[in-house]
Amino acid sequence: MNSNKIEAAYQNKQSGLFLVLLSVALILTFTRANAVEPGVSAKLNFNVNADEKLKALLPAATVEKGYVIAGTNPNTPPTTFFLEDNKTLSGRDVDILNAIGQRLGLKVIWRDTGGFDNIIPGLKTGRFDAVLSNIRPSQKRFAQIDFISYFDSSRQAVISRKDRAVAPFTALTALCGQTVGVGVGTAQVEFLNEASQSCVNDKKPAIAVAVFPSRPDGIVAVLSGRIPFYYGPWEGLAWQAAQVKALAITGKISVQEPPMSIGMPKGSPLEKAMQAALNSLIQDGTYQKILDHWYIGYGAVKEAKLNEEIFATQS
Predict the structure, then answer these.
(1) pLDDT the model gives residue 38
(2) Which of 7, 109, 206, 215 is the most exposed place for a label (fewest CB within 10 A)?
(3) What is the DSSP letter of 128?
(4) Cα dihedral angle (92, 97, 100, 104), rounded to 10 degrees?
(5) Torsion over CA of 67, 69, 70 and 74, rounded to 10 degrees?
């Protein structure tokens, strides 16, 4: 074989090797680009059947992927929290969205939002397809994200140390002149500020609103005596009082507000399918079973509503 043929054969071999390496590189790049982090593990308390008609409401791209990414701020039992292993999610919100996912034939990949304040930014940037974490719809939030309602949160509570022997009350204005803890970014901040203004209007001392990064932080402050009261959703504080015998619910508060809702990116193509799936769970009784499992069946809604429909029921 002459030198020209040898060199040509060598070049062909090198060219073939290059194409093989290029193909491998492209495959690896594609795989990495489409890889999804496994997310946080979640306990599956309920199993429901998929509905092909409801699945047909999903975008083709979502069906092809086979999953949605959900966020939650897991520090508010019994709605969303880590089990004793500190790595497995459980709670009302986890059960509800897992059931929605199963009804639509989708896997739910859970992620910790890292704080309530990260929920709206996470939805706006596409980090999450949906978030369940005690989110109260408001017109201000509605300008940024969309909602599907799922829990009547009109029942709320104020908690204190049992040894304070606080007389029971039903209005936040009973707290004029007191320091009251509340979670950052929650609707309760607004309610306390409104009550405080009513105190001032009635020539009484204002309520000092102490904002905490999380409900557990506020509960610890109550137990340590740093603050006398903490205000929040009934289900969470009733859970705390049942677990910690030194605590008592002293304030039983009723408010007019839209139901707790699933937060979704503005104009999400998943909204109609998820709303329909949730309504199917309401109709077949699965939804009520989930709430009863967490001893909060009183908050059941008769229908999951979307966006403007939620606010229309409050007018």
Answers:
(1) 74
(2) 7
(3) -
(4) -160
(5) 110
Contact 149, 137 (CB under 8 A): yes
CB atoms within 10 A of CB 180: 24
Model confidence pLDDT, tens digit, residues 74-127: 989 999 999 999 999 999 999 999 999 999 999 999 999 998 889 999 999 999
Fold of 41-152+259-312: D-Maltodextrin-Binding Protein; domain 2 (3.40.190)
Q: Which residues contact 189 (CB under 8 A, 6 or more apart)?
A: 182, 183, 209, 211
Neighbours of 176 (CB within 10 A): 17
Distance, CA of 198 to CA of 195 (rounded, Å): 5
Q: Which pTM does this prediction carry?
A: 0.82
CATH domain 155-254 topology: D-Maltodextrin-Binding Protein; domain 2 (3.40.190)
Q: Domain residues of the chain, as ranges?
A: 41-152+259-312, 155-254
Residue 200, C-beta contacts closer than 8 angstroms, at least 6 positions apart:
206
